Amino acid sequence: MKTRYLQFTDRDLAIAGELIRAGELVGFPTETVYGLGANAFDVNAVKETYAVKGRPVDNPLIVHIFDKAQIYDIASEVNSYAQTVIERVMPAPITIVLPKRDIIGGVVTAGLPSVAIRMPQSLEARSFLRAAAVPVTAPSANLSGRPSPTTWQRVGEDMDGRIAAILCGEPCGVGIESTVLDLSSDEPTVLRPGAVSAEYLSELLGRTVNILSDPTSKVNSPGIRYKHYAPKVPMVLELDDDCDKLCAFYDGKVAEGYRPVLWVSRPHRFGGRNAVSMGVNDREAAAKLFETMRTLETEYDFIIASFCWRKNSIYDGPASRGVLDRLMRACGHNII
Ligand code: AMP
Ligand code: MG
Known about the structure:
This protein has 336 residues and is α/β, with parallel strands linked by helices. It has two domains: 4-211, DHBP synthase (Alpha-Beta Complex), CATH 3.90.870; 235-330, Rossmann fold. It has twelve helices and 15 strands. The strands form two sheets. It has an eleven-stranded mixed sheet, sandwiched between helices. A four-stranded parallel sheet has the order 12-15-13-14, with helices on both faces. It starts with a strand and ends in a 6-residue tail after the last helix. Bound molecules: adenosine monophosphate (AMP) and magnesium ion (MG). Adenosine monophosphate (AMP) is lined by residues 59-62, 97, 109, 112, 114-116, 139-140, 177, 180, 191-192.
């Protein structure tokens, strides 16, 4: 298949919309990561999404919309917490999980009675979704297990020749996948951390919003079920910003014959060793996370990441839990 690279012109948006309605797959930008879009009402197109990515079929997809009114077409029940989030937070890098209507097939939700719904903040994303005119399922537009793409060029690396088209938009500003908030019961729960924090949602809803798993715990983490976001080279994670420990580990890897890199908050502290910045705060760390991962894996053969998210550290902020979650999965919970 020859993949078409489309621009955000009226003509190309119309083509992208037609392709979706014809059952084809289209890569498109959102503020979080690039998505791999398919018509949510077309069972074969949705199945093709799993096949093209190599995604486990028990991992449900998120349905993307451009208009809040569409929520009521696909969800059977919208409780008062959901109404608050829909009115006050969306559009945003957040996905809400609600009981589904029959019009959404089990292939979208991996057989679950609930459906995950997201209205992107990105105007590019919404212009594409409007052109599609149907709800669009979209996982990240990478091969399963690889770091998510945050530019159209990275989508091309994984998807060229496999999908009908890629909409070439802006690089993603947020950089990590949406916060997934389960509102299908009266116990709001964050299933996946993202840029919209549980603390913010707790304040908004006037009650504690639980977080499904402690990102540092091996037991609950979905990263154990699915290898995720992994670079092609080995990676470890350090959580204390301990310069001596990081240097000793790096030197050990050099002695073993590796060409390692330190991926850290302040690269100048490492006395001439290969070192790259993780970002100056949690937001920048999120925005650059996957792109840096994909660059480092081509230039080095061992990644030593450090992410200290303690209170008052530079990465303490709304996106820190989401960044930590992605780093934990990327290193396969290999903490030093
Ligand atoms: P992604 O991998 O970015 O496509 O996000 C899909 C994720 O959203 C899944 O791995 C689940 O964590 C979550 N999700 C999607 N649908 C549901 C659902 N019906 N119930 C609970 N979580 C869901
Ligand atoms: Mg993904």
